[in-house]
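Researcher: Checking consistency across runs. Here is Sugar kinase again:
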Amino acid sequence: MPRTAAPTLPSPVPRAADSDRRRTSASVVLRSVLEHGPVARSTIARLTGLSPASVTEHCARLAERGLLRESAAPRRSHGVGRPHVPLDLDDTRFLVAGVHVAVPYTTVALLDLRGRVVARRELRHERTDPGPVLARAAEGLAGLLAGVPGRRPLGVGVAVGGWVDRETGTVVEHELLGWREVPVRELLGARTGLPVEVDGHARALVHGERLFGRARGSRSVLHLFVGNVVDAAFSAHAEVHYGPRSAAGAIAHLPVPGGTEPCACGRTGCLQVELSERTLCRRARAAGVIGSANPMHVVAAAADGDPVARRLLTDRARATGRAAGLLLDVLNPETVVVTEVGVMHFEDCLEALREAVGPERSAAVIPTSFPDSVLAVAGGSVVLDALFRDPLGTSPEGI
C-alpha cells in the first residue's frame, strides 16, 4: 500500500497579525483603566472580553512602561479570599506636549496622561512664516519642560486648522496662515528631538472629547469648531473619518443663506467668513463695543452687560446652530460638540444654538468639555490619541 503524503498543516498566523492583535488588546486595556480605574484585573477582563491571562500580560507590559501602577489600597471581594489590587493610570511620570497654531498666536502646553493641562503659554505671532512659528513653539515647550523636572515627555501633538494630512504630518493648506505643504512633523521633530503627531484641530478635539470629555461612550460624535477657522470632524465607532489625504471636514465654503460677507474664494456668504472671529470682532468694532481684534474682549463686554456684545454673540451662536443642524441632517451623530466662544461662556448663546438646531435634536448638542483649555487640549489630544491607540508603540520603550 503506497504511503500517503503527510497532511498539510495550516500556515502559522503571520507575525504582523499577532502584533496588531497585541497592539489592539493593549489599547483596550489601557483605555479601560483610563475610564474605570482604579479597577481590578478581573473587572478589566469582564469589561473588555479579554481572557484573565491576556489582561494580566498586558497590564504587566503597560506597568513596565510606566503607564499603569497598582493602587495603594487593595480591595477584598465580599471580605473573603485574596484581595484584589486595583490598577490605575500612572499620571505621575510622563507628560505630553501640545501645540495649537491659531491665526494670532500659538498655544504650547504640557498635559498629563488624563488630558489635564499642567502648564501652558501663549506665543503671539510676530509673523506667520512656518519656520519662525515652529521654532518659537519648540522654544516655548523647552521652557515649560524646564519647569517640571523629573517628568519625561512622550511626544508632541500639533493641532492646526485648515487642511492637515495626518499620515505625513503636513499642513497641506491653511489660507489664513498662508501655509502650503508645510512638513510640520519633520520641522518640529528636528527642533524638539521628540516624536511628533499632527492633525486638524477639529479632529484633535474629537479625540479629546472621546478620551476625556463628555462624549466618552458616544457611538458617533460630530465636532464643530468655530474660531477664525471653521471646520468639522466626525467619529463613528471610535474611528474618526479622515478621507483621502485627511481632507474630510472642510466646511469653510459651505454657503450660508442670506450671508453678506465677501469671501476670498470670490463668492459671498461662505460659512467661515460669516462665522469667523475676525468677522465677529470687525462687527463689534463697528458697533463701538471693542477697539481690538480679540474675540475675548467681546465676551468680556457681554459679561459686563453690554447688550450689543451679547446680541452679536447670540446671533453668531444661532448661525452656528443652523450650520450644526445641516451637518446633523447629513451625518445623524449621537452627540454634537460645539467649540465657539459665546456658547462656551453664556447659557443664552447655548440656548440660541440649540433653538436653531431644532427641539427634537437639541439635547444632542453640547459645548466643548474644555472651555478654559480647549486649544491646549487640542494639541495634547493629538499625541494622547496615538498613545491610547498604540501604547506599546508610542510609550517610552517605543521611543
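Researcher: Does this match what you'd expect to see?
Model: One thing to look at in this run: Residues 79 and 85 are 14 Å apart (CA to CA).
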